[in-house]
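Side project, low priority. Logging it here so it doesn't get lost.
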Amino acid sequence: MTSERAVEGGRPSRHEGVAPLDTMDALTQLSFVVHAMLERTAAEHDMSIVLARMLGILRDRRPTVNELARLLELDKSSVSGLVARAERRNFVQRTPSADDRRSVRVSLTEEGRRLTTAITAEFGAEVAALLSGLTPRDADALTRIAGTVVLSSMHRHGIDLSQVRE
């Protein structure tokens, strides 16, 4: 048996003699690949993966620190420290919440938006390369299914993204 990929119609097929992964293994391995890509992209900008995740969340919403903690699945004190460090680097700003005077909303600064745009483009290019072996139909199906799984998970954890847009 050969370790080279057989090619059918210009696309790689399964390795000969290697059993396909089951759902759990496939999702686990895919999460490792995506996590490593995001970690590399963040490191290229001298930041942690958690900071990169936070900036990604802030691209299109202005959550409170509590909402941000829920979205990042971290405790409030960890997120408060993360926000403070990002604020010192001029990536984010805190503003009083119009809904609750006791809380603040976190948003990107212009510098944070510029950085987030660059990281999004770089990470997007890596994702495109990762999916380049898929047909457009399969890539669309993967996007739809992954989105459904993510939204379902958020719903199970009581996270409603429509509530943190302000």
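Brief comment: The chain is about 55% helix and 10% strand.
Revisit when time allows.
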